Amino acid sequence: MRSALPSLPLALFFAVGCAGDLEPGSAPGRQGRPDAVGLPADATTADAGDLGAPPDAGATQPPTQAVWWVIRHDPWASGVRAALRPPHRPALPPEALPEPADGFLVEWAGPESVGEARLVALRAQGLPAAALYDLPARADDVRADLGWLASRHLGPEALRLGGAPTLAVRWADAPAGARAAWLEGLSTLPEPIAWIATVGDEAVPPGAYGVMPVGAYGHGPDQATASGDAAARLARQREAARAAGVLWLPRARPGVNRRLLQAGALVDDPGPAPLARSLVLARRAARGVVVVDGWGGWRDDRQLDPVAGDTTDRPAGLTSGRAYAGPGADRLALVGDLLGTAAGAPPADLAQAPELLALFEAPGVSGHAEFDERGVAVTLVDEGGADGRRMEWLLDARPFRVPPTASLRYGRTSASLALDLVFADGQRLLAEAPATADRSVVVDLAPFAGRRVEEVALVAFAGGARWQGRIDGVRLGP
């Protein structure tokens, strides 16, 4: 179990801006989740503390992280999908809400804003929500706004972190005077709150962790779709955050298209791969909460709302030639599959996915992995660099619980290839039980019985300019 945080302020780095759309009629359904968040950890180091007795390996286990949705208010007609030819349309009414959901961060721009009505509606339904305050846009009204929010949206029904009611604040673009007014206003509140300082999708500027907002407990960078040098930069920023005692709430999102906001902007893949990658990496890093962005984010195509329409790549100036499918509820379903699935028995058809999803590549390392009739073939290209350079692919993302008597078996042509299990507490099998140099690998999983596994990953360690290898005979079971 994670140790609860005290009722201290908290800050989070999670992507450009604010929030906006609404709800599916039922309250969050997950049971037994603490409202406090544990301490930060990287993908290979488990949280410290008393883990208690081993869980029952025969039972299913619910997800260990809460899902908080960013609720945006972009008008559909102002977004990418409406500008396609033929246009795509929302498949749900604007008042719908996503599931699974344990909380909502709702874009709020004043007492008369759409966000105020959303928060009131969520309160009426008993759903935990917090305002995502647009500080740059409300720079002249900070003290009055904070008083309004404190009196109406920081009560017992509020979304909570560490036992404290929560507010999120768009911090990065706010003028100095607005920041000062916010911090001064916090000091006048009758009780401490947990507040989340948000920044944009862009890279965190150098030295950002040396200018932590006064009173903020912590923050961390977005966990989205970066790879290569960008992924390494985010990892360094996360490590700097951890060294400063910062709690990181990872944020997941689909790929985006900012062509309506900036001419010539890069266009991400509108398919499922960027979202799947973002969700898996955010789930790896989560210590209690994953923030999912964004319901109602039509303007730059980050919406996870169900969409109806025919597949099209027109107009080319908007799509950059990429095919936009009307994905229906596929994006929403993917969030549920990766963040809302109970863990039961190990999958019987491990390593049968049609496509391997690249999750991580160190700078200077690139490669390709694919299934064939004999197993998984890997090609890795290494331009040289520090030790420990690697590339990782997602082999299987279905969560499961380790049976009382089980082993992981596979064959490989090179000791530079290995399979790894990523546990729900962030620990990795290769960290706890390093693979031997044998070509035929057998890992006894009995010491891990009952633990929830979030994914099976294929890891290729760099060690030459170019090499090829193969893994086959993958088996997980008695």
Keyword list:
alpha/beta, 8-stranded mixed sheet, 5-stranded antiparallel sheet, 18% helix, globular
Please report the number of helical segments. Answer: 9
Helix content: 10-25%
Shape: globular
Order of helices and strands: EHEEHEHEEHEHEHEEHHEEEEEEEHEEE
> Mean pLDDT score, rounded?
80
Poorly predicted runs: 1-55, 202-207
Main beta sheet: 8 strands, mixed
Structural class: alpha/beta
Q: What is the number of beta strands?
A: 20
In whole angstroms, how far apart are the ends?
Answer: 28 Å
- Provide the gyration radius in Å: 22 Å
Give the amount of beta strand, in percent.
15-25%
Topology of helices and strands:
Elements: E1 66-71, H1 80-83, E2 89-90, E3 103-108, H2 114-124, E4 129-133, H3 142-153, E5 160-161, E6 164-170, H4 176-187, E7 194-198, H5 229-243, E8 251-252, H6 272-285, E9 289-295, E10 307-308, H7 316-319, H8 330-339, E11 357-361, E12 365-372, E13 375-382, E14 390-396, E15 400-401, E16 407-412, E17 417-423, H9 429-432, E18 440-444, E19 452-461, E20 466-477
Parallel strand pairs: 1-3, 1-9, 3-4, 4-6, 6-7, 8-9
Antiparallel strand pairs: 2-10, 5-6, 11-14, 12-13, 13-20, 14-19, 15-19, 16-18, 16-20, 17-19
Helix pairs in contact: 3-4, 6-8
